[in-house]
């Protein structure tokens, strides 16, 4: 089975090798990376990985503000996508945690009955008080999250999607594929959640903005979960805040983004089943002198950027503010405040 992962990156250098190695363990055979405006060796590391035949790396074709969507539009005509059996659109802080069979994507596809798309729900992993950046696997460092079925008071949680080659595709979205609104019902794809159940009709047909990229997560994680490490360490979050994101130029992540995702109520260690093989794979990748040196350079530049940011009063204030921020979800904190239990 040929599986292509498509992703967009900007200044993700310290985290690239883990994500690539992890996805190879899942059965991903090909990678298509788009990068833009990198200053931390991300692009140079991807160039070396491309020369080694491990990934394919292109400059982001976007001329406007919507980097990710313009890259996804471009990717649709790339041979590494058109020749794949399955396409996996995800970000470098997202890790597909498969609970069935040999814990690979082919095992997930089989468990779901070989549908034309599989949408797997996010589980947002908290910072959990980790301040300093460490050059070791993210999936090892961060183990706590919200209740998997509820996030910030909502039962509907966003998804990311695996797409089979014969999906009646109109275009790839960041969270799910789309087919034509006027597609005859008999031609609509078979599409499941992470438990092999048909996705809700309103999500399937993108009935309204609320159901375009999310639906209730209860019971939807039997076969797979999408671990989302959106915060990582506080050091890395400061650097991420300075960088913006791949979707919108100069976008800042304010404290609401942090607070909504920093709920440590639940511990989930299941993804660590991959750790022994992941560490072996990382050691193998880094044994290439050029790859290892560029990874180390990216780590150094990441730390230097943190140090630079902390010379600025606004970033020192941000660091202090986030360290003191409550770990209760905003909606739960508001309820407790309204009841006079918290202040």
Secondary structure layout:
Layout: E1 3-9, H1 16-26, E2 30-35, H2 42-51, E3 56-59, H3 67-75, H4 79-82, E4 86-89, E5 94-98, H5 105-111, E6 117-124, H6 138-141, E7 144-145, E8 156-164, E9 171-172, E10 177-178, E11 191-192, H7 201-204, E12 214-216, E13 224-228, H8 234-243, H9 255-261, E14 266-267, H10 275-286, H11 289-309, H12 313-324, H13 330-338
Parallel strand pairs: 1-2, 1-4, 2-3, 6-11, 6-13
Antiparallel strand pairs: 4-8, 5-13, 6-8, 7-14, 8-12, 9-10
Helix pairs in contact: 1-10, 2-11, 8-11
Please name the defining characteristics of this protein.
343 residues, alpha/beta, ten-stranded mixed sheet, two-stranded antiparallel sheet, 13 helices
Kindly describe this structure:
The protein has 343 residues and is α/β, with parallel strands linked by helices. Helix content is 35%, strand content 18%. It contains 13 helices and 14 strands. The chain has helices at 16-26, 42-51, 67-75, 79-82, 105-111, 138-141, 201-204, 234-243, 255-261, 275-286, 289-309, 313-324, 330-338; strands at residues 3-9, 30-35, 56-59, 86-89, 94-98, 117-124, 144-145, 156-164, 171-172, 177-178, 191-192, 214-216, 224-228, 266-267. Helix 2 links the parallel strand 2 and strand 3.
